[in-house]
Amino acid sequence: MKIEQAGNMAQYGKSFQMPKIAENWSDDEKKAWAVGLLSGYKGLDEVEVKHIVVDKSEKLYERLEIHDKSPQVYAVISGSVAVPVSEKLESESVRFYQAKAGEAIIVDEKVWHAGAVGIDTPAIVIVVLAAGTSETDTIKKPLQPAVKFG
Predict the structure, then answer these.
(1) Chain-centre distance of CA 55, in angstroms?
(2) What pLDDT sits at residue 45?
(3) Sign of CA dihedral 53, 54, 60, 63
(4) Rg of the chain over CA atoms, in angstroms?
(5) Domains of the chain, earliest start first
């Protein structure tokens, strides 16, 4: 399985690098940067934030999700992860993009994706979406056949 670098994901979104000074920031300051990143990217005032510890380097993806109105930020605080994305709900079109500590990936709206899997674990990831996305703008569908990472 090939893992692409975050900078190569233009078809699905964008990647960003935290400023060099972020090495000295607290986790709360890095979280604020991730919130600001999504706010600036889409002009959003209200967001939902999730703090995720990724400790598994193997994962079976049996479903993907999509949001019609909100992109999704994966800001890596420590470690590194791979994020699966796909333009179609088809196993053969799933691609994995790596984000390392100090990097963020924004998966655009209307792009199939799923939760991150670890490369350098444990990894800490801040996920940011538009407010209400989890409740009102998330469609999850099965992926046949499932895609295995690791």
Answers:
(1) 15
(2) 87
(3) positive
(4) 14
(5) 3-149 (2.60.120.10)
**Nearest alpha carbon to residue 84 among 148, 20, 16:** 148
Quick: pLDDT tens for 9-31: 999 999 999 999 999 999 999 99
> What's the maximum distance between 2 C-alpha atoms anywhere in the chain?
43
Mapped onto helix, strand or coil, the DSSP state of residue 103 is strand
Residues 83/113, Cβ–Cβ less than 8 Å: yes
The answer to whether 121 and 56 have CB atoms below 8 angstroms apart is yes
Closest CA to 125 of 47, 27, 52: 52
* Alpha-carbon dihedral 33, 133, 88, 106, rounded to 10 degrees: -10
pTM (2 decimals)? 0.95
pLDDT at 2: 86
Q: Is the dihedral of CA 89, 132, 130, 22 positive or negative?
A: negative
